[in-house]
Amino acid sequence: xxxxxxxxxxxxxxxxxxxxxxxxxxxxxxxxxxxxxxxxxxxxxxxxxxxxxxxxxxxxxxxxxxxxxxxxxxxxxxxxxxxxxxxxxxxxxxxxxxxxxxxxxxxxxxxxxxxxxxxxxxxxxxxxxxxxxxxxxxxxxxxxxxxxxxxxxxxxxxxxxxxxxxxxxxxxxxxxxxxxxxxxxxxxxxxxxxxxxxxxxxxxxxxxxxxxxxxxxxxxxxxxxxxxxxxxxxxxxxxxxxxxxxxxxxxxxxxxxxxxxxxxxxxxxxxxxxxxxxxxxxxxxxxxxxxxxxxxxxxxxxxxxxxxxxxxxxxxxxxxxxxxxxxxxxxxxxxxxxxxx
Length: 341
Prior knowledge:
341 residues; single chain; two-stranded antiparallel ribbon; Fic-like fold; 2 domains; mainly alpha; Arc Repressor Mutant, subunit A
């Protein structure tokens, strides 16, 4: 790789099609309008992003646990996984301050992301590295002595590239994984840095849950990396990433804050047991609750406010015949977290 290096990428009709579709959808979205309407949704998507990126790396913490950590609550989980979540939340919170073409910022972000996880956080690896698939070596990374030069040249290429940011960021993502510059954290750094590059093109990408969708398609993600490596062409990986980004943008275009609000564990439990029209006493029995005030305030009232639950007799809220049922929004929320019933 020299100073004039152009990463090999075959621009296919699919890549051009995805780029055009994403650009058109993003162009329809008003950042200021979305900021006013979906502040809550942005926060939820940030949590989904952290959850997705870390889950790809084997972190088992749930969205609810990550939300609790964000809110400063105590969570019972392996210390390593808690550190991973805390570090990732810290980095994404500061996303707006990092320069996507700065080597200094790249190393600083790795230092924060891998704090208390590896001894050489914020430093390039000093030894060899490879990627294993079972007992097979599927990729041998360049020698450690070449890493500083390769990363510097890759950053210079991003800065001067005439490729569309959607394509350039995807190429960077693949090339970064190929170089494998750190002893650990390369996957989450590559995904985060693509988000950073895209957020400089359009601020919407600072909070789109692209990584959550990658997690759902994890096998295809790794298969795309392997395909590009075998063919010495970033095209297959770029195509995969653009398809994933398109899915994330479409999701934002269709979802509303009412469908995916911040949901407490109490409301989630209520929705899970509410399978038909049920009375207050029936629901309390299902939840094994005895404290009526706790049930009224933290379960029923909270769910009613969020429009996840409705009364069967709305005109007479205190009727002795009153029952409760899930709304469409409540059912869609359960479906969004994989708990639909």
